[in-house]
Design a protein that fits this description.
Elements: H1 2-94, H2 98-112, E1 120-123, H3 131-134, E2 138-141, E3 148-152, E4 159-163, H4 164-174, H5 176-184
Parallel strand pairs: 1-2
Antiparallel strand pairs: 1-3, 3-4
Amino acid sequence: MALDSVTKEIQASAEAQIARIQKEQADEIKAINEQADAQIADMKKTQDKRVAEAKETLARQERSSAELESKKLVLSKKKEILAEAFESALAELEAMPADKKLAYYKAMVASAKNIIPEPVAFMSDKDKFTATDLGVKSVKKDPSISSGLLLQSKDGKFEVDMQFRVLLQNIWDSNLKQLSDILFG
């Protein structure tokens, strides 16, 4: 019986050690799980923060892109309106009555005579003014001129471009800011 009692003692001791080891393992597994859960929670929190930042960045980029596209459309429309206004003003100049056009042409010649004393006038085929009407040496027709005058010295060294398109473009360019403010507030 002594052997039975020693065997039972060894078995009880082994079972106690097994129970202690199992408890230690369970505690260790619990600690590892808790640590892993904490790390997972931190990683999830970090990822959620990154996702939220990425969403916000994308939303900002989309808004900026939409605003830029909107500004482009508005600017394009404004440019279109300005071009229409320019063409309308030019059409009005080109369609003015002959007597008014002659008065403008005479003023152009008078102004150019400071640079070119006896100019040769180049003008549109549509205009029917003579050299005497304008007060120039001679008049030549040029199909590339739609309205206004191109005044040139006899030797061709000096030229004053007073075509309506050129004059209007110069005025337009120097006053574009004011024109834009008037048209678009």
